[in-house]
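Proteins fold reproducibly. Look at a sample protein:
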Amino acid sequence: MTEFEVIASYFNAGQQSRGDVILGQSDDCAIVRTTPQTHIAVTTDTMVAGVHFDEKVPPRALGHKLVAVNLSDLAAMGAEPAWLSLAITMPEVNTSWLEEFSAGLHELANYYNCQLIGGDTTRGPLTLTLTAQGLLPEDQLLTRRGANPGDWIYVSGTLGDAAAALAAQRGEISVCPVQQQQLEERLFYPTPRITLGQALRPIATSAIDISDGLAADLSHILKRSEVGARLQVNNLPYSNALNGNIAVEQQRHFALHGGDDYELCFTIPEASRGTLETALAHIGVDVTCVGQIEANGGLRLFDGDNELPSSIVGYQHFGVNL
């Protein structure tokens, strides 16, 4: 198959069309229509074979996760997903692999009403790059900058499952087959918190998605907002799969430093905590308060009243990963 046949067979087919796409994948550029008083949020993520995944990862999961990690960035900004562009480099045309990969990609994109409007297809080592664009009201920008002393720190969902799944695959921890399946479901098929992000726009002071571990990602908020934080590690939320037969210290390590959770971390002022509870009642996402913003810079970890040694190390492409 030629690259154009690949595009027509796997990436033009199987997706929904949006009314604001004037011209999609049939020309040199896509053309989209936006509305007044609207900003466009843009994010790009790359997944490389041998770095982000290996041959054991199902191609359908790769398609899903490639979309999910980008939409998670949009969720952290409170944006409404709109358009996707895919650059795919692959060593050969494997039709069964493409069938599954594109099915996973379209399934999640269609669920969130995203349209694939362009990209590039080339030959080489397997590399998957997706750019996602979303829409934001100009008067409701949610960023990493804005946390204030006294704000409460929340996280969505549960933390540490994806890191635990990788540790189990490597033989670093021992879990039963049922636990392994549950943990790998979180690793392979993360859920971007789009609805939560949009609900947070008028009430949160800052937000970020948790891709490199809570400690590292929360520290980005602290740096941009020029504040510090007191984090209660005994409040970290874990799934039933992670709670089973895994030491507390290991659970904390996965949650704080593991990454690949794609949950949201956000800050809420005291006056808006009731508004948050009202908003959550309509979207069905669990959130947990895990700490509070302080005036003095830096991240401090506590177990009750006892301060613990702090580390902000998360996943790093060019550094040491513990």
